[in-house]
Design goal:
heterodimer, A: about 50 residues, 1 helix, B: about 250 residues, 6 helices, elongated
Chain lengths: ~50, ~250
């Protein structure tokens, strides 16, 4: 299934690993911050009502 | 119904809630599909060999790096002219996405350049303007963090964004008017002879669609987060004022 990348296997694999890694870090960091802030807002609104 | 209705933070959050899962889902579908198609089911190029597969990451990320800054420019101008907070927050939200896209383009370009040009880096007009764009992104994000008053921060970052647009446009058009660089001409063109071959073109289009949708999804998600951060600050301020009165 893996294509024959010949002498360029190293650069091609590294380009994919680095790019997908960077994008995943960005998505996960954005998602985690969104969840954390949403909870903090719910808490702040709860305190404000109370 | 006017587009400016979405400048209302509450309306923006309500409208984007059902859109978010669809945008993320479509982005994932296009990205995974496009990258699998390009990596596994396209042949090697007769000159570049297997390194041509890097095009599916490099071209869409470079495209988004420039267009993210242009989106930030439009949002900044809206803030400066109409003082809509959501537009300033959208510009702020787009910066980390843009800087990541710029980094992906720089890294994949360097990895591709080493075997093809014999060097990781050259002070070529396009590469240099792209590096400056990357530094502008870092400066833009640092400026937002450095200023406590959000409106002043939005004003100053908007001005920085306008200045940085010169480099965003330069990195887009440098290959067209500077011929002394190493970087080849644009891979995508309306001229069929200059455009990449169809076998590479269609998976590349799928990857570009994936990157555009991912950018959109992340900017929506991050703008909603910035709106909520503002709301928390407002509630904290209100609570402090109430305490001071009692």
């Amino acid at each position: 299934m893996m294509p024959d990348l010949g002498p360029y296997a190293g650069p091609v694999i590294w380009a994919y690993v680095a790019s997908i890694g960077l994008i995943l870090v960005l998505v996960l960091a954005s998602w985690r911050r969104a969840v954390r802030i949403r909870r903090a807002l719910q808490q702040a609104e709860g305190q404000n009502r109370g | 119904m006017s587009i400016w209705e979405y400048a209302n933070p509450k309306k923006f959050v309500e409208t984007t809630t059902p859109l978010l899962p669809w945008t993320f889902g479509l982005a994932g579908l296009c990205l995974v599909g496009g990258l699998i198609w390009g990596f596994f089911f396209t042949p090697d190029d007769y000159r570049q060999g297997a390194t041509v597969k890097i095009i599916y990451l490099h071209v869409p990320s470079a495209l988004m790096a420039i267009n993210a800054w242009l989106m930030m420019l439009v949002a900044s101008l809206i803030w400066l002219v109409r003082r809509h907070h959501v537009s300033a927050l959208a510009a702020r939200a787009a910066a980390p996405v843009g800087v990541t896209m710029t980094l992906v383009a720089l890294v994949t370009g360097a990895i591709w350049g080493q075997p093809m040009w014999g060097t990781w880096w050259a002070w070529d007009p396009r590469l240099t303007s792209f590096l400056i764009l990357f530094l502008f992104y870092l400066g833009y994000m640092a400026l937002w963090e450095a200023i406590a008053d959000p409106d002043t921060a939005a004003d100053l970052t908007s001005v920085l964004c306008i200045v940085g647009s010169v480099f965003a446009l330069l990195s887009r058009y440098a290959v067209n008017f500077w011929n002394q660089g190493l970087h080849q001409g644009a891979s995508l063109s309306l001229d069929a002879e200059k455009n990449v071959a169809d076998i590479f073109y269609y998976p590349l289009l799928a990857c570009i669609a994936g990157f555009v949708l991912l950018f959109l999804a992340l900017v929506l998600l991050r703008t909603r987060t910035e709106i909520r951060v503002r709301r928390i600050r407002a509630l904290e301020l209100r609570a402090r004022r109430a305490e001071a009165r009692t």
